[in-house]
Write a structure and sequence with these properties.
The protein is built from 12 helices and 9 strands. The chain has about 300 residues and is an alpha/beta fold. It has 2 domains: about 180 residues, Periplasmic binding protein-like II (D-Maltodextrin-Binding Protein, domain 2); about 100 residues, D-Maltodextrin-Binding Protein, domain 2 (3-Layer(aba) Sandwich). The strands form 2 sheets. Strands 1, 2, 3, 4, 7, 8 and 9 form a 7-stranded mixed β-sheet that branches. A two-stranded parallel ribbon has the order 5-6. The longest helix is centred in the first third of the chain and has 16 residues.
Length: about 300
């Protein structure tokens, strides 16, 4: 089994803890050989570290997989990182998996930079994602990105964004350039951005932000995507997962389960609502899993 490096020198100070070196159990393998059985490849190391990003759908699916895998006997650590640090950690074998890679547009920069040092899955778990700038439905005269400059004062020349380094934030910067928008993109966090959207809508004030679907916010607020004639954000996005090189050899069973994983709009929306509504995300994920055993069985059987 390929060993992962210990330490996080290149991202010291980030929120990453408890990633341990992988090691095999030679005695167990030897006993299996004596008994005439092949050792389970995944049994060499029961610990899997998954990167978690502070986005609603990412929190939902990482907690879902933590529950599923721990029910199967694995030990799963969720490590909170931003997208850039996640890619670096996967590339240096300090992280096993990231469950949310948006392609072909949003995370194309990471694919280009790390395609030789990270395994980006061809399999997708969500096939109908959308990304773009959104405004409240009550802004009836603003329906396209091309309408923004003429209404700059209405928005104070600001696009309210989320995590710096996220692929969608970089694409939004490209969109500002493509449309020659006289706007500034303000980074924050996803929770802060959603709170600002909620505050503005409560007072029927204007706001424009980059957002994506699937996301629970569309069930709580009446928002619309702005037309993007230059197609900077792309059309339909698909969500993939990524793993460190060697993960498929070390954990063939889990790799197969990740590749089998598929969700539709209703399933991911319901999972997000369960996780968001629970005091502990694991409790929400567990409840959703208990009610969707047939679906889970399609992935892990």
């Amino acid at each position: 089994m390929r060993k992962r490096k210990k330490g996080l020198s290149f991202i010291s100070g980030l929120l990453m803890v408890g990633i341990l070196a992988a090691c095999g159990d030679a005695d167990e393998d030897a006993n299996s050989a004596q008994n005439g059985t092949e050792p389970d490849a995944d049994a060499n190391n029961g610990e899997i570290t998954i990167g978690q990003i502070n986005w609603a759908e990412n929190i939902a699916v990482t907690n879902m997989w933590k529950v599923i895998l721990e029910d199967k006997g694995y030990e799963v650590d969720l490590t909170l990182l931003d997208m850039g640090a996640t890619m670096m950690a996967l590339s240096s074998d300090e992280l096993d998996a990231s469950l949310e890679i948006w392609l072909p547009v949003q995370d194309a920069n990471y694919l280009e930079e790390y395609e030789d040092t990270i395994n980006f899955s061809e399999a997708t778990w969500f096939d109908n994602a959308q990304v773009g700038l959104v405004v409240p439905e009550y802004l009836e005269d603003i329906n396209s990105v091309e309408d923004l400059n003429a209404n700059k004062e209405l928005f104070d020349g600001q696009i309210i964004g989320f995590d710096p380094g996220a692929g969608t934030m970089e694409v939004t910067e490209q969109l500002i350039e493509d449309y020659n928008l006289d706007f500034e993109l303000l980074p924050s966090t996803e929770p802060a951005m959603i709170a600002e959207i909620g505050s503005k809508i409560e007072n029927e004030e204007p706001i424009v932000s980059p957002l994506w679907s699937p996301h629970w916010v569309f069930s709580d607020f009446d928002l619309k995507f702005l037309d993007d004639p230059k197609n900077t954000f792309g059309e339909t996005e698909k969500i993939h997962h990524a793993t460190r090189l060697g993960f498929e050899d070390d954990y063939p069973e889990v790799s197969e389960w990740f590749n089998n994983w598929k969700m539709d709009d209703q399933e991911i929306a319901e999972l997000i609502n369960y996780v968001e509504g629970a005091e502990d995300p694991l409790d929400g994920a567990t409840e959703w899993i208990d009610e969707n055993q047939d679906l889970i069985g399609e992935w892990v059987n």
